[in-house]
Amino acid sequence: MPLIVFAVACIEVIGLIRVGGVIGGMTVWGLILITAVLGLTILRLRGGAAVTAIVVSLFAGRLTPKQLLHRRDLSILAGGVLLIVPGLITDVLGCALLIRALFTRRNTQRSVKEERDAIDVVFKVHDDAPRE
What we know:
Elements: H1 2-23, H2 25-60, H3 65-68, H4 72-84, H5 88-103, H6 107-117
Helix pairs in contact: 1-2, 2-4, 4-5
Protein backbone atom coordinates (compact mmCIF):
# COMPACT_ATOMS: atom_id res chain seq x y z
CA MET A 1 0.00 0.00 0.00
CA PRO A 2 2.74 2.54 0.81
CA LEU A 3 4.35 1.70 -2.52
CA ILE A 4 1.11 2.55 -4.35
CA VAL A 5 0.81 5.88 -2.54
CA PHE A 6 4.43 6.69 -3.36
CA ALA A 7 3.94 5.76 -7.03
CA VAL A 8 0.80 7.91 -7.31
CA ALA A 9 2.61 10.84 -5.66
CA CYS A 10 5.53 10.53 -8.10
CA ILE A 11 3.19 10.39 -11.10
CA GLU A 12 1.30 13.42 -9.78
CA VAL A 13 4.50 15.46 -9.36
CA ILE A 14 5.74 14.53 -12.83
CA GLY A 15 2.35 15.44 -14.29
CA LEU A 16 2.23 18.77 -12.47
CA ILE A 17 5.73 19.68 -13.68
CA ARG A 18 4.88 18.82 -17.29
CA VAL A 19 1.57 20.67 -17.24
CA GLY A 20 3.26 23.61 -15.50
CA GLY A 21 5.76 23.77 -18.33
CA VAL A 22 2.94 24.07 -20.85
CA ILE A 23 0.40 26.36 -19.15
CA GLY A 24 2.62 28.00 -16.54
CA GLY A 25 3.44 27.35 -12.93
CA MET A 26 1.11 29.97 -11.47
CA THR A 27 -1.85 28.57 -13.41
CA VAL A 28 -1.13 25.09 -12.06
CA TRP A 29 -0.75 26.52 -8.55
CA GLY A 30 -4.12 28.28 -8.95
CA LEU A 31 -5.81 25.09 -10.14
CA ILE A 32 -4.43 23.19 -7.16
CA LEU A 33 -5.76 25.83 -4.76
CA ILE A 34 -9.18 26.00 -6.44
CA THR A 35 -9.69 22.24 -6.38
CA ALA A 36 -8.52 22.02 -2.76
CA VAL A 37 -10.97 24.74 -1.71
CA LEU A 38 -13.73 23.01 -3.69
CA GLY A 39 -12.96 19.67 -2.02
CA LEU A 40 -12.91 21.23 1.45
CA THR A 41 -16.21 22.99 0.77
CA ILE A 42 -17.86 19.77 -0.40
CA LEU A 43 -16.61 17.88 2.63
CA ARG A 44 -17.68 20.64 4.95
CA LEU A 45 -21.19 20.87 3.49
CA ARG A 46 -21.93 17.18 2.87
CA GLY A 47 -19.19 15.20 4.60
CA GLY A 48 -20.65 14.96 8.08
CA ALA A 49 -24.07 13.86 6.89
CA ALA A 50 -22.50 11.36 4.50
CA VAL A 51 -20.34 9.78 7.21
CA THR A 52 -23.29 9.63 9.59
CA ALA A 53 -25.55 7.98 7.00
CA ILE A 54 -22.92 5.39 6.08
CA VAL A 55 -22.02 4.52 9.68
CA VAL A 56 -25.64 4.25 10.80
CA SER A 57 -26.49 2.01 7.85
CA LEU A 58 -23.48 -0.21 8.46
CA PHE A 59 -24.10 -0.65 12.17
CA ALA A 60 -27.83 -1.21 11.70
CA GLY A 61 -27.04 -4.03 9.27
CA ARG A 62 -28.96 -2.47 6.41
CA LEU A 63 -25.89 -2.07 4.24
CA THR A 64 -23.58 -4.76 2.95
CA PRO A 65 -20.04 -3.96 1.80
CA LYS A 66 -21.15 -4.53 -1.82
CA GLN A 67 -23.98 -2.00 -1.44
CA LEU A 68 -21.55 0.42 0.19
CA LEU A 69 -19.67 0.82 -3.10
CA HIS A 70 -22.85 2.00 -4.81
CA ARG A 71 -23.72 4.62 -2.20
CA ARG A 72 -23.98 8.21 -3.27
CA ASP A 73 -22.59 9.33 0.09
CA LEU A 74 -19.38 7.38 -0.42
CA SER A 75 -18.87 8.95 -3.85
CA ILE A 76 -19.24 12.42 -2.34
CA LEU A 77 -16.75 11.65 0.44
CA ALA A 78 -14.15 10.08 -1.84
CA GLY A 79 -14.56 12.82 -4.45
CA GLY A 80 -14.06 15.56 -1.86
CA VAL A 81 -10.97 13.91 -0.43
CA LEU A 82 -9.46 13.36 -3.88
CA LEU A 83 -10.01 17.01 -4.77
CA ILE A 84 -8.06 18.07 -1.68
CA VAL A 85 -5.04 15.98 -2.68
CA PRO A 86 -2.90 18.06 -5.07
CA GLY A 87 -2.48 16.54 -8.50
CA LEU A 88 -4.15 16.13 -11.84
CA ILE A 89 -5.04 12.46 -11.67
CA THR A 90 -6.65 12.76 -8.25
CA ASP A 91 -8.56 15.84 -9.36
CA VAL A 92 -9.94 14.03 -12.42
CA LEU A 93 -10.92 11.02 -10.29
CA GLY A 94 -12.51 13.30 -7.67
CA CYS A 95 -14.54 15.14 -10.30
CA ALA A 96 -15.63 11.83 -11.84
CA LEU A 97 -16.88 10.59 -8.47
CA LEU A 98 -18.73 13.83 -7.82
CA ILE A 99 -20.34 13.69 -11.26
CA ARG A 100 -21.33 10.08 -10.55
CA ALA A 101 -22.89 11.16 -7.27
CA LEU A 102 -24.71 13.97 -9.03
CA PHE A 103 -26.37 11.60 -11.50
CA THR A 104 -27.08 8.76 -9.05
CA ARG A 105 -30.71 8.61 -8.07
CA ARG A 106 -31.61 8.89 -4.43
CA ASN A 107 -34.47 6.43 -4.88
CA THR A 108 -32.05 3.52 -5.32
CA GLN A 109 -30.88 3.91 -1.72
CA ARG A 110 -34.44 3.91 -0.41
CA SER A 111 -35.58 1.02 -2.58
CA VAL A 112 -32.81 -1.21 -1.20
CA LYS A 113 -33.97 -0.49 2.37
CA GLU A 114 -37.64 -0.97 1.50
CA GLU A 115 -36.84 -4.17 -0.33
CA ARG A 116 -35.08 -5.61 2.72
CA ASP A 117 -37.92 -4.58 5.07
CA ALA A 118 -40.72 -6.08 2.95
CA ILE A 119 -42.19 -9.50 3.67
CA ASP A 120 -43.79 -11.19 0.69
CA VAL A 121 -46.44 -13.72 1.69
CA VAL A 122 -48.91 -15.69 -0.42
CA PHE A 123 -52.13 -16.53 1.37
CA LYS A 124 -55.58 -17.93 0.64
CA VAL A 125 -58.82 -17.01 2.32
CA HIS A 126 -60.97 -20.00 3.31
CA ASP A 127 -64.51 -18.96 3.91
CA ASP A 128 -66.43 -21.88 5.43
CA ALA A 129 -69.29 -19.78 6.74
CA PRO A 130 -72.65 -20.44 5.09
CA ARG A 131 -73.89 -17.71 2.80
CA GLU A 132 -77.39 -16.33 3.07
